[in-house]
Amino acid sequence: MTTSFKTGWHVLYVKSCQENKVHQLLQKNQIDSFLPMIKSIRQWSDRKKVIHKPLFPSYVFVKLNSSMDFHNALSMDGACTYIHFGREYARVREDEILKIKWFVNSEDISSIKASNGSFQVGEIRKIKLGALSGLECEILKVNNTNKMIVRLDSLSYKITASIPSYYLEQPSLI
């Protein structure tokens, strides 16, 4: 199978629990990479602890500028393969990377989690504030808070987060 390589952000699939190690190796070797991390509270019988874990398990985003970067990133200890669809390597647009960065660094957004499973169909609205403005999202009502699902088509993932209701446009009356 011959796959075509193009410059830009690609998705590197890594061994389980090796995301941070691969990300640090890439940075050490001066290859631009991004590992979105989220805070999570782990409950033990005697304590709670805040941990940081990857938003997309086993994925590290790598910005490739040459075929040398492509091969060097793949040769890192813990790296397995690049995600590809058919003969094309999965690429993530720069604006999607910027939105994910904003998303995981925003203080207004909580309860972030990602899933590639299907969700119950709900109301579709546009986000009117913040870096995600203009994106359509699906609203789910859970525990009296609004949850939104932002689809990132390049990844076949959905991101779920609790956001303030004033971030959303009011439904249009027909």
Explain what this protein looks like in three dimensions.
- Mean pLDDT is 80; it is low at 117-121.
- This protein has helices at 19-28, 67-74, 94-105; strands spanning 8-14, 33-34, 37-43, 48-54, 59-64, 79-82, 84-85, 88-89, 91-92, 110-115, 123-126, 136-142, 145-152, 157-162.
- The chain has 174 residues and is an alpha+beta fold.
- β12 and β13 (145-152) form a beta hairpin.
- The strands form 4 sheets. Strands 1, 2, 5, 6 and 9 form a 5-stranded antiparallel β-sheet that branches. It has a 5-stranded antiparallel β-sheet with strand order 10-14-13-12-11, with no helix packed on it.
- The termini are far apart.
Can you summarize this structure?
With 174 residues, the chain is an alpha+beta fold. Helix content is 17%, strand content 40%. The strands form 4 sheets. Strands 1, 2, 5, 6 and 9 form a 5-stranded antiparallel sheet that branches. The chain has a 5-stranded antiparallel sheet with strand order 10-14-13-12-11, with no helix packed on it. A two-stranded antiparallel ribbon has the order 3-4.
What's the layout of helices and strands?
Elements (H helix, E strand, L loop, with lengths): L7 E7 L4 H10 L4 E2 L2 E7 L4 E7 L4 E6 L2 H8 L4 E4 L1 E2 L2 E2 L1 E2 L1 H12 L4 E6 L7 E4 L9 E7 L2 E8 L4 E6 L12
Antiparallel strand pairs: 1-5, 1-6, 1-9, 2-5, 3-4, 7-8, 10-14, 11-12, 12-13, 13-14
